[in-house]
């Protein structure tokens, strides 16, 4: 076998070098070792990584875990195609990194965090062991979507063993770990690398050896190495009881440790094998006692059994609906749907087929709705039945009380000058909501152009019955915008509430929204620099009114190009107040479990922790400012090194070439001093931490003067955004992330 053999230890292996059993690679600070080892009570040989100074249970990664070498004649090398491979003495390939692009001058290095990295001649990473873990989750390791950890089969066999699932991530914790807030969550962070979300874990003390270990018995252990006792000490263990073992009770059965018999069939189901069930062999699970009415073409309606404090199942189909009644309707539309759940940070979740691994918690968990035949629900008189009779989704009361006062479920809008229109009048104004008059479609519902009998042109927002937003946002928008009057805010003219119809009528903006000009290669030339600067100033003044000068202090929470409307003179008007929040007189920030907004515009503290304030809107304004300057959308922007405008803008600023950001279509006629000032201001607005951003009043001041503090990027450990949010835009990011243990 040709190649260069090496016997001494180093921290690298170069392309063409061959390391034999007994040769090792050691990380620079001697934290980890890569080489061949034999598990406890075994003579089989495996390539792996282990702690250098830990004598007990020290292996953290295994390459050829399911193809052992029977003797000590194995080798590992980086071949000509750039792949690290493991072979036995006969030259049989047992394991490979499977890098698909052939490279020259590749090297493999063992890092001090335990990561084995293969790089090409340009030092670009081709493969990392951290992205292909086995049974150990180490600090700084990134776990991407569908990333999995699999335990060893036994202490002497590292081949993949049992697994345990954590459940979905709902934006705050794993749905399958109800006590996560108390202990498990410490050190976990969720980031986005480009468009790829990932988890990582950081030890509180960098000098500590801390890890998450998936044991051969299927338990996930958080452990810390005790140097004095020379043993691993337990910080946390999951599963915490027998019910956490995957699908212990079989299909359509739930496990509850508080019951003397852990496993019980769901109401409406019976054991598939009574003999096995009675001797506590629950693996075959349960079956329906009565077939669903829809499967028998019966006219009777199926319904749902509500089960609280449940660990949600894996493999749900998620539907972008933010209303539980709409979620229920979605399930009823499909006879194969067996259950649904609604978690605001994940969305509507639907399951088909058998329901497996159901666990009832003492506290925490989520509510699951199981589809049952009508006869089952009627005979058992289940109190929590949710019938299939469609409810009037979003029903709420609204009346006029007193002279011009509007009341929405007890929230009174004093002195409102709103006009209440009849549905027939609105239909006539829009040509019966004809497609020819349709201006677009947002999260709220369709928007139409209309014309009143008096000749006034209007924009009509009709609440869609299938809207994922809808009722709360409708009420919110009326209560807020009825109080607001400013030249840079869109004006609400009236509303219509008849039966299930809920409609808002606005002043018509003939030039529609800013994004229709800004991101259109043909139309963007109509936005010269003077118009763009006026739009920037107008948006800032509108925000200043919301944050400081109106009777209410309002945080918009969804500032973006599509929510900036343009009148006939290209004056900007901030619109869409469905997500806005009112702040009290002394209130500076608030927190929410339901993060709403649009990916690419949300401040890190809001997307990650649900914290929002005036500084959150300032961040969105900064992103919008960069978009206006560049003529490109942050969400679709791509360069060789960056997946968004912000990183690219900082790069150009640091290189001393900020004017490279300016849209080529306006370069010749733009005022370079104004453009540079706007770039400078935008970078200050998009600082990672809210404390480093200016208030909107200072933004307005800086737009009018040259007095801007130096833009220096204040970096934090945060990356960008978490994706588990109610994105009201057109993002296709996943709504949940789950780990398989």
From TrEMBL:
<dbReference type="InterPro" id="IPR001245">
    <property type="entry name" value="Ser-Thr/Tyr_kinase_cat_dom"/>
</dbReference>
<keyword id="KW-1133">Transmembrane helix</keyword>
<keyword id="KW-0472">Membrane</keyword>
<dbReference type="GO" id="GO:0005886">
    <property type="term" value="C:plasma membrane"/>
</dbReference>
<feature type="domain" description="Bulb-type lectin">
    <location>
        <begin position="10"/>
        <end position="131"/>
    </location>
</feature>
<keyword id="KW-1015">Disulfide bond</keyword>
<dbReference type="InterPro" id="IPR000858">
    <property type="entry name" value="S_locus_glycoprot_dom"/>
</dbReference>
<dbReference type="GO" id="GO:0048544">
    <property type="term" value="P:recognition of pollen"/>
</dbReference>
<keyword id="KW-1003">Cell membrane</keyword>
<dbReference type="Pfam" id="PF00954">
    <property type="entry name" value="S_locus_glycop"/>
</dbReference>
<keyword id="KW-0418">Kinase</keyword>
<comment type="similarity">
    <text>Belongs to the protein kinase superfamily. Ser/Thr protein kinase family.</text>
</comment>
<feature type="domain" description="Apple">
    <location>
        <begin position="294"/>
        <end position="374"/>
    </location>
</feature>
<dbReference type="Pfam" id="PF07714">
    <property type="entry name" value="PK_Tyr_Ser-Thr"/>
</dbReference>
<dbReference type="InterPro" id="IPR036426">
    <property type="entry name" value="Bulb-type_lectin_dom_sf"/>
</dbReference>
<dbReference type="GO" id="GO:0005524">
    <property type="term" value="F:ATP binding"/>
</dbReference>
<keyword id="KW-0732">Signal</keyword>
<dbReference type="InterPro" id="IPR001480">
    <property type="entry name" value="Bulb-type_lectin_dom"/>
</dbReference>
<dbReference type="Pfam" id="PF08276">
    <property type="entry name" value="PAN_2"/>
</dbReference>
<dbReference type="InterPro" id="IPR011009">
    <property type="entry name" value="Kinase-like_dom_sf"/>
</dbReference>
<keyword id="KW-0430">Lectin</keyword>
<dbReference type="GO" id="GO:0030246">
    <property type="term" value="F:carbohydrate binding"/>
</dbReference>
<dbReference type="Pfam" id="PF01453">
    <property type="entry name" value="B_lectin"/>
</dbReference>
<feature type="domain" description="Protein kinase">
    <location>
        <begin position="433"/>
        <end position="725"/>
    </location>
</feature>
<keyword id="KW-0245">EGF-like domain</keyword>
<dbReference type="InterPro" id="IPR008271">
    <property type="entry name" value="Ser/Thr_kinase_AS"/>
</dbReference>
<dbReference type="GO" id="GO:0004674">
    <property type="term" value="F:protein serine/threonine kinase activity"/>
</dbReference>
<keyword id="KW-0675">Receptor</keyword>
<keyword id="KW-0812">Transmembrane</keyword>
<keyword id="KW-0067">ATP-binding</keyword>
<keyword id="KW-0808">Transferase</keyword>
<keyword id="KW-0325">Glycoprotein</keyword>
<dbReference type="InterPro" id="IPR000719">
    <property type="entry name" value="Prot_kinase_dom"/>
</dbReference>
<dbReference type="InterPro" id="IPR003609">
    <property type="entry name" value="Pan_app"/>
</dbReference>
<protein>
    <recommendedName>
        <fullName>Receptor-like serine/threonine-protein kinase</fullName>
        <ecNumber>2.7.11.1</ecNumber>
    </recommendedName>
</protein>
<dbReference type="InterPro" id="IPR024171">
    <property type="entry name" value="SRK-like_kinase"/>
</dbReference>
<keyword id="KW-0723">Serine/threonine-protein kinase</keyword>
<keyword id="KW-0547">Nucleotide-binding</keyword>
């Amino acid at each position: 076998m040709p190649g260069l053999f090496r016997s001494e230890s180093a921290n690298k292996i170069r392309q063409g070098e061959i390391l034999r059993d007994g040769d090792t690679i050691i990380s620079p600070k001697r934290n980890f070792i890569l080489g061949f080892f034999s598990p406890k009570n075994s003579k089989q040989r495996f390539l792996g990584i282990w702690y250098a100074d830990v004598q007990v249970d020290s292996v953290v990664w295994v390459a050829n875990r399911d193809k052992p070498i029977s003797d000590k004649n194995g080798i590992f090398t980086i071949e000509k195609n750039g792949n690290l491979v493991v072979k036995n003495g006969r030259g049989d390939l047992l394991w490979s990194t499977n890098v698909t692009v052939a490279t020259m001058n590749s090297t493999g290095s063992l890092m001090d965090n335990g990561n084995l990295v293969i790089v090409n001649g340009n030092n670009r990473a081709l493969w990392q062991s951290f992205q292909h873990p086995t049974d150990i989750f180490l600090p700084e390791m990134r776990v991407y979507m569908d990333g999995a950890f699999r335990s060893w089969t036994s202490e002497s066999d590292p081949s993949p063993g049992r697994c345990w699932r954590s459940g979905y991530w709902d934006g705050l914790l794993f749905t399958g770990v109800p006590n996560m807030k108390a202990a498990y969550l410490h050190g976990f962070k969720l980031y986005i690398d480009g468009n790829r979300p990932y988890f990582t874990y950081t030890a509180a003390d960098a000098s500590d050896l801390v890890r998450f270990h998936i044991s051969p018995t299927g338990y996930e252990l958080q452990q810390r190495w005790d140097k004095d006792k020379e043993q691993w000490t337990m910080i946390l263990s999951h599963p915490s009881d027998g019910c956490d073992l995957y699908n212990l009770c079989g299909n359509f059965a739930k496990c509850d440790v508080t019951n003397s018999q852990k496993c019980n069939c769901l109401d409406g189901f019976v054991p598939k094998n009574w003999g096995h069930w009675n001797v506590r062999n629950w693996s075959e699970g349960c079956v329906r006692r009565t077939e669903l009415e829809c499967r028998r073409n019966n006219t009777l309606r199926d319904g749902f059994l509500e089960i609280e404090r449940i660990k949600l199942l894996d493999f749900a189909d998620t539907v972008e609906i933010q209303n539980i009644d709409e979620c229920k309707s979605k399930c009823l539309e499909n006879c194969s749907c067996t259950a649904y759940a609604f978690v605001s940070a994940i969305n509507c979740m639907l399951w088909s087929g058998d329901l497996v691994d159901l666990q009832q918690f003492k506290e925490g968990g989520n509510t699951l709705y199981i589809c049952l035949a009508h006869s089952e629900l009627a005979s058992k008189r289940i109190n929590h039945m949710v019938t299939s009779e469609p409810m009037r989704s979003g029903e709420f009361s609204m009346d006029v009380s007193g002279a011009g006062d509007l009341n929405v479920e007890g929230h009174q809008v004093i002195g409102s000058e709103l006009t209440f229109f009849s549905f027939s009048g609105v239909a006539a104004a829009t040509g019966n909501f004809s497609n020819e008059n349709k201006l677009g479609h947002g999260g709220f519902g369709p928007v139409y152009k209309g014309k009143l009998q008096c000749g006034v042109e209007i924009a009509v927002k009709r609440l869609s019955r299938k809207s994922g937003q809808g009722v709360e946002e409708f009420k919110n928008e009326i209560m807020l915008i009825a109080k607001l009057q400013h030249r840079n805010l869109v004006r609400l003219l009236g509303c219509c509430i008849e039966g299930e119809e809920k409609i808002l009528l606005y002043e018509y903006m003939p030039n529609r929204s800013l994004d229709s000009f800004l991101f259109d290669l043909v139309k963007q030339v109509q936005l010269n620099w003077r118009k763009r600067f006026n739009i920037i100033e107008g948006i800032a003044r509108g925000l200043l009114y919301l944050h400081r000068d109106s009777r209410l202090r309002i945080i918009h929470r969804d500032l973006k190009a599509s929510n900036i409307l343009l009148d006939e003179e290209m004056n900007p008007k901030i619109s869409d107040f469905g997500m806005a929040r009112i702040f009290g007189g002394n209130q500076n920030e608030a927190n929410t479990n339901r993060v709403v907004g649009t990916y690419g515009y949300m401040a890190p503290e809001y997307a990650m922790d649900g914290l929002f304030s005036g500084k959150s809107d300032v961040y969105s304004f900064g992103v919008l400012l960069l978009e206006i300057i560049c003529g490109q959308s942050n969400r679709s922007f791509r360069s060789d090194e960056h997946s968004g405008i912000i990183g690219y803008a900082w790069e150009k600023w640091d290189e001393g070439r900020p004017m490279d950001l300016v849209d080529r279509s306006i370069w010749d006629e733009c005022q370079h001093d104004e453009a540079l000032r706007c770039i400078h201001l935008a970078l200050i607005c998009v600082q990672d931490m809210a404390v480093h951003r200016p208030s909107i009043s200072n933004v307005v001041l800086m737009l009018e003067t040259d007095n801007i503090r130096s833009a220096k990027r204040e970096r934090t450990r945060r990356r960008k955004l978490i994706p588990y949010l109610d994105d009201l835009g057109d993002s296709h990011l996943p709504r949940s992330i789950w780990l398989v243990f």
